[in-house]
Amino acid sequence: MRSSWMDPADIGLLTELEPVVARALDAHFQRADDWYPHQFIPWSEGRDYDGVLDGQPWTQEPDGLDSAVLDGLLHNLLSEDNLPSYHRMIAECFTRDGAWGTWVNRWTVEEDRHGMALRDYLIVTRAADPVELEDARRLHMQTGYDLDCRGTSLVGLVYVTLQELGTRITYQNIKRRCGEPVCEALLQRIAQDENRHMLFYREVLGAAMELQPERTMKALEEVVSTFRSPAHAAPGFRRLSLSMARSGIYSPVTHHDEVLVPMMRHLRVFDRAGLSAGGEAARERLAGLLQATEAKARRFADTVASVR
């Protein structure tokens, strides 16, 4: 089912990419190993809360998770909470037809596990206030989500490829700081899902670059210039994102060095010959954007070093 805003260039590209999507989907099913969120939750630590069960109200426990780890988990849970909006967005970008539609639904199935497991873990272990969690979930989902650079399927493909890579890195970095074995095991499983999602999108994006290099360069430029977390409208996002940056979970350095640069290298953005004049111009603008993100990363690193 095609979106009403989809232009003929999008329709043609999605059709050309369909065989690539089908192969990437087959590879994904071969790599994927389903897991069960309930197996990663320490249920024996759970206690009734106040309310109809007249249990123990939530209080901050002194021996809980490291504050930076908790902030990273809260940010990622809020990100995962908006899954209905993300499902709508990628269904509009990629259609619900054929292999594309199968991917959209499979991706949603796998992503749904993440928010479910993170919330259960935080509530059972009393690591976070369940009332604040629910209030934030409700407000964030009611706000919804749309791409900043909404307009073409190719732009959407670039965004989700970069976003999945950034999300995988975030989960891995939270795990490295965590120090709690059960949480580490859960984060490892989620990171594996996110990595497989990134591999799927990266393969399709690479094919798009071969088929339509000029349009792909322009889409890369547009996304890099506007990129931000899908949780940017969530309650408390600014505080959580600053905490993640200061702790090294996800900072301007991470974004430039571990997301943008490796992706540009994989796509051979600056090694390609034979671009049209429009493609060359887009590549030059993209190079300028990467210089700006590198300068921002170095300024951030210098600032962090100066206060230590």
TrEMBL record:
Cofactor(s) in the UniProt record: Fe(2+); Fe cation
Keywords from the UniProt entry: Fatty acid biosynthesis, Fatty acid metabolism, Iron, Lipid biosynthesis, Lipid metabolism, Metal-binding, Oxidoreductase
UniProt xrefs under Gene3D superfamilies: Ribonucleotide Reductase, subunit A
Binding of Fe cation 1, residues: E80, E111, H114, E194
GO cellular component: cytosol
Binding site for Fe cation 2: E111, E164, E194, H197
GO biological processes: fatty acid biosynthetic process
Textual note on the cofactor: Binds 2 iron ions per subunit.
A GO term, aspect molecular function: stearoyl-[ACP] desaturase activity
Pfam families per UniProt: FA_desaturase_2
Assembly and interaction partners: Homodimer.
Family: Belongs to the fatty acid desaturase type 2 family.
Protein name: Acyl-ACP desaturase
